[in-house]
Each structure stands twice: as C-alpha cells, then as structure tokens.
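DM from R.C. (forwarded with permission)

"hey, sorry to bug you on a friday — could you get me a structure for this? deadline for the figure draft is monday and I only need the backbone to look sensible"
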Amino acid sequence: MTTAAQLIVLSTTKISGNSVVVQTLSREFGRRGFLATVSRTTPAALFLPLNVLDAEVTENPKSDLWRMRGISCRYPLASIRTSPYKSAISLFMTEVLLRTVTEGAWDESLWEWCERSILTLDALENDYSNFHLRFLLELCGALGFAPTTMDLAPFAGDLYDSLRSLLSLSFEESMLLPLSGTARSAIADILIRYISYHTETALEIRSLPVLHDILTA
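My reply, with the result:
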C-alpha cells in the first residue's frame, strides 16, 4: 500500500551505502522513521532539519521500517538556510521536537502547528530573538498542557514577570519584548524544565547553549 504524505524532517541517520533513516513528523503517520535512498535525484539536502517534504510512503508488511520515494521539498526555506541565527533556532526546534514527541505519537493539529511555526520563522525578517521562547510556550499547548502564569510560578524564580509578559502578549508583541541574552537562556531552561515535568522525561537540549552563544554574539 502506497500513501501520499507530507513529512517534516527531524533527523537523518545513515545506515549503509546511500540508505538513510529519516525521522519525521507527518499528518498521516505522526512521529515515524522512514527508509530513503540518497541519489542524484534525491540529494541529501532534501533531508535538512525542518524541511517539509512531499513523498510517497510504501508500507512493508514484514517490517516497521517503511520506505519513502518520490521525495520533493514543499518549501525552499531560503531564509532559514541562509541565516546562521535562524539555522540555530531551527536546530533547537528540531531537537526539542525529537525529544518530546514520542515514536508513534499522532496528532494532526500538532503537525499543522509545526508546519505553521516553520513557515513563520522563515518569513520573519527581523525581531525573532524571542522566537524559540514562543515556540516552547506554544509547544506546551500543542502537547496538551498550555501553562498559565500560576503553572509556571514554581519554575520561574526572578523571571516570573518576564514569563507573565510572554504569556499575555500577542505573537507580534512577544517578539519585541526586551530581554537580555542571559534572560532568554534562563527562560528557555525554565520552559524546558516545565515540559520535562509534564512529559516525565529528563530533557537535555544540547543545542540551547549554542543558540544562546549565536543570539548574543
């Protein structure tokens, strides 16, 4: 059985020769890995993190590892690919999704929100240093535990007022909220701990220090 699917790339692992396993999030299959072959017509660049792909998925009754073919990129994401700042944010987003959305999880609204977040980041021309903070807050809602100010209070410490502002402001206003690089990093850590608490998973997001260094350079 072959199904047309739209997939968001989360990670790629080479297994042998030109074969790779691509971890994806899709509206059709949720979080799932697929086997793909890198070739002249299917270059490795197709599998960059957060690319949104159109593909034909062929189910294998003898294996849980299904194959994807006829792969094309739905959006160029030129801004994300050329900006070191947006690239760092996209890697952070990818790592968070990999560690919070479990294999086999399926939620069409989560996929739609992810696609919208990717396109929003790509479209922003400036004032996006707070984007990853808004992403974490919205991810909580997409996963089913959107926080109130009181929910975040036990995690917030001295940054309670800043978190309250992020929660109450519109997206456009939250992008303009003045925060130091240190405050952004600390707020991201607070929100990751909040997500860890609700998912009962110890989240160590290794790309966060890198993102902090790039955004404050």
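R.C.: lifesaver. The longest strand covers residues 2-16.
me: no worries. The CA atoms of residues 30 and 144 lie 16 Å apart.
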